[in-house]
Amino acid sequence: MATGTRGPVCTPSDAVTFIDNKDISVKEEIGKGTFGTVYVANYKGRQVAVKKLGFEDYPWRLPEPARVLRESVLEEAAIMQQIQAENVVRLIGVCLEPANYIIVMEFMPKGSLLNLLLSNTPLSWAQLLQFSTDAARGLCALHRPTESGPPRVHGNLTTSTYLLDANMRVKLSDFCTTKTKTSVKRYSKFRRGRSTVAYVAPENLRDINAPLTPAAEVFSFGIVLWEIASRKLAHEAIRYKENEIHKFVLEQKRKEEIPANCNSSLAAIIDKCRSFEDTRRPEMAEVVKLLENAERNCPSS
């Protein structure tokens, strides 16, 4: 399978809207992305979410901080603009004024999928399958090859990077780590030891500098599906201990058990995605079809 990369970054003429900072009224902080802090805000009378990037968001030393921040905002906005899919958070525009490097996007009032899963809110298998299908469609849209190049990869796929809109539909967000092969290697070093290691495919655990491929990200999606099915965090007891996860996955070749009460179709899809061999994992287009079929055949209550 082809290595995940990104095509050429959009230029301002590629329909990314530039927004005047004075038109944005920031209200309160609602979360943090991989890089940047997210706020709820008003933009010309509508409620939006804004992600502000600052120098402190980058763990490595920046040789030209203003240029790097500007490029980071434009790159993430370009990716969002290029995808334009129903299950991807929609871009509204960017602000590139000094000290205000901002991405403006649709507001997702129901928060992250992870927070919902870990709550006490009753959820049926029909709802969990809908979340799974929505999540798969978002990632499939990102993986789809483009005219400008091969498929992209997200780079930090977790249940936290999926958000819920007012209608409880799931959308993929946080594209700041959707990188080229070279940048994925650099990000891998930053990623080491953080909670995202719980979602990393065996081939990337084995070689932290190996490029992230769509097949590797299908494994990550399998972990997302496991969390949806179990309503628990993957590798919760050893989540921040990379050596322990190495031992569990690579040495013992173990997988966390799928809940006994899991919808049987969903359980089979989780197993396919979590295959230790990357060539045996389905592509996301196939995962979408499998989940759509499972959703159709699931009782509504």
UniProtKB/TrEMBL annotation:
Pfam families: PK_Tyr_Ser-Thr. It comes from Branchiostoma floridae (Florida lancelet). GO terms for biological process: necroptotic signaling pathway. PANTHER family: MIXED LINEAGE KINASE DOMAIN-LIKE PROTEIN (PTHR44329:SF298), SERINE/THREONINE-PROTEIN KINASE TNNI3K-RELATED (PTHR44329). This is Serine/threonine-protein kinase CTR1-like. The keyword Transmembrane does not apply. ATP binds at K52. One of its GO terms (cellular component) is cytoplasm. Signal peptide: none annotated. PROSITE patterns: PROTEIN_KINASE_ATP, PROTEIN_KINASE_DOM. SUPFAM superfamilies: Protein kinase-like (PK-like). Residues 24-294 form the Protein kinase domain. The gene is LOC118417962. One of its GO terms (molecular function) is ATP binding. Keywords: ATP-binding, Nucleotide-binding.
